[in-house]
Amino acid sequence: MPIMEWNSDLDVGVEAMNDEHKQILDLMNRIHDASTAGQTGAPVIKLVDDLAQVTIDHFRDEERYMEQTGYSGLATHKLIHKDLLEKYTGYATDIRAANGVLPDKFLMFLKLWLTAHIKGIDMKYGPKADQLKKAG
Ligand SMILES: [Fe+2]
Ligand SMILES: [Fe+2]
User: What is the arithmetic mean of pLDDT over 127-135?
Assistant: First the structure.
């Protein structure tokens, strides 16, 4: 069973960002499935490294998008990205040291990232946020 399926709650209203979020979600689900199936070692470490790379690329693209649209929350959003990436790197180091065994809190961390960051923080930069403001 996946951690989470893509659904409209995760739609930030920007196609390119949605696509990258789907890539992130897919990797999270693959890490979750591998771990549930009792996999460890190099295959798990590879997935964790892949998610790191996809995330680094995504944060860069997202920050560029916010710059281009003149989004006022850019500085705060950048700090949140930096913090997320530091936490992720910490976990990745632990996972490598444990030969691909995931710490208990790791999957919870991934899930929280999706719910809190994409739904709460990313949602604010897209056209959906403007629509909500106008509607309110
Ligand atoms: Fe973000
Ligand atoms: Fe994002």
Answer: 67
